[in-house]
Structures are given as C-alpha cells and as structure tokens.
Specification:
Blueprint lengths: L1 H17 L9 H20 L1 H13 L1 H7 L3 H14 L3 H9 L2 H24 L2 H4 L1 H12 L6 H7 L4 H27 L7 H26 L1 H6 L1 H19 L3 H7 L1 H25 L5 H12 L3 H7 L6 H9 L1 H10 L1 H10 L12
Keywords: Membrane, Transmembrane, Transmembrane helix
Protein name: Bile acid:Na+ symporter, BASS family
Organism: Bradyrhizobium lablabi
Length: about 350
Amino acid sequence: MVASGNAGSLCPADSFRRRAPFESRMPISLQRIAALPVQALNWLGGQGTRAIAALVFFGIVLPPLGELLKPFVTEAVFVLLCISFMRVDIAALRDHLRRPGIVLAATVWTTLGVPLIAGASCVATGLDAHSADLYLALMLQAVASPMMAAPALVAVMGLDSTLVLITLVTSTALIPLTAPLFAYVFLGAALTLSPLGLGLKLFSILAGALFVAGGIRWTVGASAIKRHKGPIDGFNILILFVFVAAIMGNVVGSLLADPLRMLGLTGLAFAVFFALLGVTALIFRKVGHEQALALGLMVSQRNMGLMLAATDGVLPGTTWLYFALSQFPIYLSPQLLKPIVGRLTARQPAPAATGTGEA
C-alpha cells in the first residue's frame, strides 16, 4: 500500500518529466516558424564585427528610427550589461580576483590618469579658450567611465571580456566621486553634476543587471548560455543598435551643412580613440598582448551617454555632435582591428594548464 501510495503521489511529477518537450509536440511547420527568430539571431551573431560596423551606417540613414528608439537608451544599456554579467567566465573571474593588480592599475589609469592627461593637454594647447564647446566635449569624454557595452564588444572580438567587465565595474563605481571632481577642476562650477544622483543611478543599474544576470544563469545554467552563443551575440547586436541609432540621427544634416567641420571633428574623434587605445595597450603590454588590447579597447570606449544623462542633455551643439561622431571609431574598431586580433589569437599557444598567467 505504501508503495502504491508513493507511486500515486509521484505520478503527476513523473508524467510531467516524461512529457515530450513543447517543441517536439508542435507540428513540423510550426516548429520551423518558431525556429526562424533563433536562426536569424544566430546568423546575425555570426556576422560579428561586420554587423557592429554596419550599426553606425544604419543609425545614420534611419534618423526617424533613431528618434523612435531614443527613449529606450537606458533600457538598452541595462540589457547590454545583463548580457555581459550573464556571460562571465567564472574561472577567469576567480583568477583575476586572485591577482587584482591588473584590475587596480587599469582602474586607476582610466578614472584618474586619462582625465588628468586630457585636461592638462587641453589647457596647455589653449583649447579651453579657443573652442569652449569642443573642450567641454573632450573633458566629458575623458571623465566618463568606460562604456557598459565594452565587454560585449570585446567578447565579439574574441578577447578577454571578463577582465574588461571587472575593471568596468570598479571604475564605474568611482565615477560618482571622480567625474564631478575633474569637471569642477577643469570646467569650473558652471557644469552641474549631481554625485548622489549619478551614484544612485549607477548603483541601481549595476546591481539590477547583476541580479537579473544571476537569475538567468541560475535558471538556464552556464553551459546552456555557452551553447547558445550565436543567438545571444545576435540579440546583443540588436540592442547595440538602439543606442547607436538614437545618437546618430542628426549626423547627416550636420554633414550637409558644414562638411569640412564634420570631417575635422570625425578625424579628432578617431585620433582620440586610437591614442587612448594605443597608450593603454603600451602601458599594459607586459600582462599579455591580448589582455592589453582588451583593456585598450575598454579605455578608448568612453560612456558619453552617461555624461549626457548626468547633465540632462543641456549641452552645446558642438558637444552633442562630437559625441555622435565618437561612435564611429567605437563601433568600427572591431572590424578595423580584426586582423590584429586574428594574428594575436593565432600566435597564442594552447594553454597546458589553468592559472598560468603572469601576476
């Protein structure tokens, strides 16, 4: 009787476990239709750096779509960070935390070194007096934290996104203190930044994304996330488009109005990007070429959208325009640097054991 009772009590659960998956009970035609979005995302994710480069041009030629997506920029940034947290390599995370020197050095460089050098250079060249709007743009770029999409872009290139993510979190946590300080020193009291408001916003975004990503990993498992790398990459590219389209909408009009000025600002945006990338990679070259390049990409990708939010968007036209043009090197760099990353990866020997990196 006991056995019969136990069998009866377990019967519903057993029958639930033995049920065929929902997809296998669907008609073949419906299965194919249901699989189309996943196949499309998988294809898009397979395009990698080419798709990221295309985002910029789609953002330019579709300004109405940019206006439509502009209210969702904050949500897009949150989803990008969730994806980055969700895909963290736990083994690599533990390895970096056991050797925090690289993370600490990179954090100090991006939060203190970059703003100090940028501010001193602008003042020394007299840019603050000759072009106040451009000076404001460059300083807001320098004091900003790295982009929250940086780990996603680095991952698409096949580099160490875990190191970038850890450094992103530590440097972002300091921004409520460092950004207002440097803004006051180099820009004066005219620019109003709220450390408390910015800090609370950053904390809520980071904590919320970590909570959501942890829930996803706990529910589906890390192995499932790795198996579905292609569709996740494709979804990541779609979310990146939201931010790009929102900020690139006015580029065409400005180009037609003053092409020479646009070319000059675009050249400056590329020069600043590659200067930050090159100097950072040179500073951290001893930790390994791949890690140094990943950190260089992170430092060169500044979160100017966050500074727009912090200033409530009350910025001069030249500052806005420079922010938009700075998206070109950010989203074109994965495609431009793809040959370099390919050579670095090809030269990298297969690891014989774990935990063999330099301290």
